[in-house]
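Following up on my earlier thread - several people asked me to post the actual chain instead of describing it. Fair enough. Here it is, all 425 residues.
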Amino acid sequence: MTETMTGSLPFPITTGPASAPTSSCDVLGDILRQGAQRLLAEAVEAEVATWIEARAHLVDERTGHRHVVRNGHLPERTLVTQVGPMTVRQPRVRDRRPAGQAEQFTSAILPPYLRKSKAIEELIPWLYLKGISTGDFGEALQALVGSQAAGLSAATITRLLESWQEEHHTWSKRSLTDKQYVYVWADGVHFNIRLEEDRQCILVLMGATPEGKKELIAVTDGYRESEQSWKTLLLDLKSRGLEIDPKLATGDGALGFWKALPQVFGTTRSQRCWVHKTANVLDCLPKRVQPQAKRMLHEIYMAATKREAEQAFDLFLSTYEAKYPKATACLAKDRDQLLTFYDFPAEHWIHLRTTNPIESVFATVRLRHRRTKGNGSRRACLTMVFKLMQSASKRWRALNGPALIPDVIAGVVFADGIKPTEVAA
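Reply from S.P.:
Thanks for posting it. Predicted structure:
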């Protein structure tokens, strides 16, 4: 039975000299901090008590005394948390059995070298990647976790940047043996580098697993969006164990990716991103006709059947080809690849028509570039994109209709998003 904790905290809480005024926000913060500190202390005490009780049967044969006992407390340490710094004392445990038999207690709640809570560890890269410079971290963090927060200086951020670079290097060499991605999304975005003349292109590949979860596959530095850069990336994935061809790849029509893909994964089908295609077509039209054109494009890829989509496609071409041949040529050249998604489950269409999961993250990257006037080096830019994509991947939504993925893997062709009846039977 769970024991109900009772008790009260003093109110108001004094945070300074008695004569100093205390704001309601400071009072609330102190209440939360003291409550959290007490709960943490009780949780650690309970953890130690449970560990010792599980070894109560270990006794000295001569004296009958227990081998595993409490032995005071370890030195105090300050833990930086999202509610401010907290002082904690962890009970010390002594095991009096001979060397080789004695066990060492390690708290799962308070690991030996923990100085910052997980939320704070995630807060630091989030602030950096949102545009806070290392020189401004002190002020920003004091506002968030209190003026007594220690160990969160500009030097800390510099060390984190170095650790992120090592993390990306290790991640980029990980084994992909036994991995399979049913769908993949590819994109490349250019960035200005302050210390170099050439613009940098970051190539990103994400995929959907047989369980329907989206994963980040690769983030690498390319030369523009060339065929060779994408081929190098894809060959690297294959050399690390990614042997099974994805069923469908979605990306921007301008990518060298499409030339490289069949050279490495020959059976993967192509789907052009409708967000990119819409923007490209509208760029070829005067602003006064863009709203109507955008609605007509929307009617193509939102059609319930491929036949209806083909009819809407033809209507767009006949409407604009006389006056705006560049716009209709831009659309028509990728006709088949724009409608590939109709051969896959209708539940998956919302995921397959665009590269939005990648595009939304790059919007955040561009925000930091505007605030910092670009990265100083290519490696810093690559690392920043990796951390942003890695953070965003935790919130990527899973595929709709995951139960249909085995049929996709088996090669079933869906008719207007519906599984054929003879296969269903």
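Strands lie at 68-73, 77-81, 84-88, 91-95, 183-191, 200-208, 214-222, 248-251, 269-272. That should answer part of your original question.
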